[in-house]
Specification:
With 160 residues, the chain is mainly alpha-helical. The chain is built from 8 helices and 2 strands. The N and C termini lie far apart (72 Å).
Amino acid sequence: MAVAAGADLKWLTNSSALLGRPIRNNRQGARWWGLVRLLVDDLGLSLKSAAAAASTALLELGSGAVVRAAGDPTGSATVVVDLPRYRSIFLGNLSRALVHETPRRRGRRAASRVGSIAAARRYGVDIDLVRAALARSPAERLALLEENAAFLRSMRKRPR
């Protein structure tokens, strides 16, 4: 949605909250949000003015002409949208969103859903041996470790 609208996801979320308008994940919603973003970021209109202008302009979408989206009551200043040109820009962004890009999600990657025991088992670790060792008290584990270390020392001292 963000790529098709040519906007940052955070901008979309914040603008949606300010306007009280939900983000609809469809082609028409992306076209509307893209025009609003264009009017706000590139022309400096306020968010509410840009939303009204985008709604007005896109009502004339089928006409295929340049439309007057907004203006002052005296007609001294107007915002004119070249719909065919905007349509081609939007379709390029939509194509890029559908075919080439998936926006990166912010933050850390989600932790693996696979349990650590299942992952260890797949790796080849003998889980029963680990469970048997963990069932012993710390003193018993330390005694077993000392026995293993003594065995290894005795093996190194033996002549071949």
